[in-house]
Amino acid sequence: MFQLKFYIFFHLIAICCFPVTNEFIMKMIPIDSPDLKVIPQGYTSHERHQLFTNISLSRALRYRKNLSPNEIKTPMYRVASSLFVTRLQFGDREGHEGFYSPYLLLDTGTDLTWVQCEGCNPCFELSYGNFPYTESTSFSRVALNDPLCLPPSFDFEGSCGYSRPFGFKEASTHGILGREEFYFASEGGHGIAYSNLLLGCGLVNENFNFLLNNGHQNVIAGVQGLGSGEESIISQLNDDIKGRFSYCLTPLTRQSIAEPPTMYFGDNAQISGDATRQVQTISMSSHGLYHLYLSSISVEDYRLDIDPFIFELDETDFTKGFFIDSGSPYTMLAKSAYDPLKEEIIEFFRDEYGWNPDPTRGTFDLCYSVPDHEYDEHYFPTVTLHFLHLEYGEVNMVLGKDNMFQKMTEEYGGNEGFCFMVVKVDDPGPCIFGAFQQVNFKILHDIYNSALSFVPQNCLQNS
Predict the structure, then answer these.
(1) Are 319 and 428 in contact (CB under 8 A)?
(2) The Peptidase A1 domain covers which part of the protein (predicted)?
(3) For residue range 71-113, what is the model confidence (pLDDT) as tens digits?
(4) CA dist 329 to 47, 59, 74, 292, 360, Å?
(5) Can you tell me the distance from the alpha carbon of 234 to that of 227, in angstroms, rounded to the nearest whole number?
(6) Between the N and C ends of the chain, which has fewer C-beta atoms within 10 Å?
(7) How many Å is the maximal CA-CA distance in the chain?
(8) Which pLDDT score is estimated for 315?
């Protein structure tokens, strides 16, 4: 059982006396926030979309074990990244609680939280120094016989060691598996501390490239794992937060960076809506991904001819299926699902408005040169994802214009137009339900009940 205590979040010193509550929050800082300095100043919107596409591809391809050469030739596909970063606080030193406060990639596709530690060799550069785990009085090593010393763990200097590939499987981290005291914020301005949470202490970190800033200005120190496996804080804190976390993503525009979304855990993870709007999900302790039962896709009222096999989970190596991943900027669909969707959208615009694709725009596979006023005034087709709930049957998620298309005028020097914001990957996938398509939906993960709930919501006004 984890020891709880409360503290003033901004100072992390004074112990406070507030009623026990099983809830905390994390800020979801966009990877292109100026504070992170990951993206160079002067980066154009076109370059930003290309970068987000590469992040999406990188996250999709890391699940693939057999890759063709044309999928790996672009170096940017090899980045270790996520759309969102969070900032944590952990460790106790000389009465200073939560003295180390790193930025970590927020990753629902990874279980273990890890950070680069002092004494690493090799290391990636980090602007504010590595975690001095030997100075933290709350850090302890996990014993080899501990139930959470799970494969592929190994003997590291007499205690449990961990080893993880990351990104495109060229990057990897190895080191000590430890336990540490973590400090989380709460909505009320105070916080909560949990002791004995797992923390990977990275001492051998190879080939890490956190997007475009790989030098001394890099602020990303590791990964915050939010998968469903046993090593995730979601599972470790199950008695307290009941496997619940939620978020409401704001539009992926430069304007939304100023007020990043918030991820809620435990009692704070609430959603309003009726019970039929639930999507069944699989909780995979050994892999940590969140798989959804997608059966088919419709454009308007026309159900596309897509073999549902492409969305089914391949339980042998988890390289095929339909996974929800807020760390992927855009939705990725396998070719056999993407092509029918693309063709139906082309047919809709051609029949309704006489619009034909413009292959010269280039950022995405399907783009149009159309005046902004026509984009604003015209009706666009809805795309419906048909999910299955094992109790209620079919559950539909209707995606409108703002979840499927985006104006691309600035990207092309004032040449007005828009693009279809879904990216194609080779069969068999995997298919990934990305952040752009989740915008303005309140999403609740309920791992304890193997369910995912959603409801449309204006996330800028009510997150």
Answers:
(1) yes
(2) 84-455
(3) 434 444 445 678 999 999 999 998 888 999 999 999 988 899 9
(4) 14, 10, 18, 18, 23
(5) 7
(6) N
(7) 71
(8) 76
Residue with tokens 């009085």: 137
At 35 the pLDDT is: 82
Q: How many residues does the chain have?
A: 463
Token pair of 240 as six digits? 């307290």
Burial of 68-102, coded b for 16+ CB within 10 Å and e otherwise, reads eeebeeeebbbbbbbbbbbbbbbbbeeeebbbbeb
Q: What is the pLDDT of residue 310?
A: 95
Q: What tokens does 411 get?
A: 């990207």
- pTM attached to this predicted model: 0.88
| Token pair 């828009």: residue | 418
Using the predicted structure, report yes or no on whether residue 39 has a pLDDT greater than 90.
no
What strands, in cross-sheet order, belong to the sheet with 405-407? 367-368, 418-420, 405-407
Q: In the structure encoding, which two tokens stand for residue 292, read together?
A: 């959804």
SS3 content of the chain, % helix, strand, coil (to 5): 15, 35, 45
Q: Residue with structure tokens 């280039």?
A: 362
User: Cα 344 to chain center, whole Å?
Assistant: 29
Tokens of 300: 């308007």
Model confidence at 382: pLDDT above 80: yes
Mean pLDDT in residue range 30-34: 87
Q: How far apart are CA 450 and CA 280, in angstroms?
A: 6
Torsion of CA 99, 105, 110, 114, to 10 degrees: -30
| Chain centroid, CA 155 distance in Å | 31
Express each pLDDT in 319-359 by its tens digit.
789 999 999 999 999 999 999 999 999 999 999 999 999 98
User: In the structure, what pLDDT confidence band is assigned to residue 64 with cuts at 50, 70 and 90?
Assistant: low
Q: What is the pLDDT of residue 289?
A: 81
Burial class (CB in 10 A: 0-12, 13-18, 19+), 314: middle
CA atoms of 63 and 66, how far apart (whole Å): 9
Place of tokens 């193997």: 450
Question: Would you state the structure tokens that stand for residue 277, as one six-digit string?
Answer: 């709007």
Tell me how far apart the alpha carbons of residues 60 and 125 are, in angstroms, rounded to a whole number: 26
C-alpha–C-alpha distance, residues 249 and 457, integer Å: 10
What's CA 137's distance to the chain center, in Å? 32
Distances (CA, A) of 154 to 160, 178, 287: 6, 13, 18
Name 448's Cβ contacts closer than 8 Å, sequence gap at least 6: 238, 242, 243, 244
What contacts 211, CB < 8 A, 6 or more positions away? Answer: 31, 38, 39, 51, 55, 79, 81
Cα–Cα distance for residue pair 454/175, rounded to 1 Å: 38
